[in-house]
Prior knowledge:
Elements: E1 2-5, E2 11-17, E3 25-28, E4 51-55, H1 73-87, E5 92-97, H2 99-111, E6 115-121, H3 134-141, H4 152-163, H5 169-174, H6 185-196, H7 200-206, H8 214-223, E7 228-233, H9 241-248, E8 254-259, H10 266-269, H11 271-282
Parallel strand pairs: 3-4, 3-5, 5-6, 6-7, 7-8
Antiparallel strand pairs: 1-2, 2-4
Amino acid sequence: MLTFTAPDGTELAYHVSGSGSGDPLLCLPGGPLQDSAYLGDLGGLAARRPLVRLDLRGTGASGVPADPASYRCDRLVEDVEALRAHLGLETVDVLGHSAGANLAALYVTRYAERVGRLVLVTPGAAAAGLDTSGEERLAAARQPWREEEPWFAEAYAALEELAAERGSAAAFAAVAPFFHGSWDEAAQERQSEGHRLRNGEGAAVYGGEGAFEPAATRAVFAAFGRPVLVVAGEGDANTPVPTAAAYAALFPRAELAVLAGAGHFPWHDDARWFAETVGRFVA
């Protein structure tokens, strides 16, 4: 673990791993505000390209800020820029997963000239102003490999409630299988651990009022001429393939890669595919 100081004086931690060559790939975790440890080595990607995982403020080994309002996504952008400067990189390749893609999007919006290649993995789309319909989420959930599972009927009924905007906290918990390609014991453990490692206070602020200006972000995307890769999971009810495709369409030089049989964490569903697909892109 290494540290640097954010512009407001908060001490932040980052983790370097991998034996790959070249400058590091800067990885921004989702959650939002979840310990970056859940990213691990991204399915072996670290063997192809060194990874730098940032522990966002108030998570992992990073310090808790004096001002809780600084958890808002747009305010975290300066932490990312401070890390780039600390690493001594003129430009940096950036990977954002899930809610971390919103932070990556705002970093591009503010510092487009500092970004080389951009990887958005099952991206949260609030920063870009993209909406996902309930039917798209239901269609993503209805995968042949799931429909015979004993948990499917209950989980799907809960997702229908959420799609109709009638969901409860219990419904949100019940749809967890639709975030994973396989709802096995390992996936259930990761889901539980994710809740434990998440900063709930920060998560409530992350996407708060004023965090996102979608029109401005989309305008920057339209002019962003660097390569972009959007990765989607075929069965991800959080970021269904149509949402991921719409996200890729916002850029002039983007490609979409869809992993069959995968959910919201594709490096767990097929580590080799993920490492090879992303590794080729950032080589």
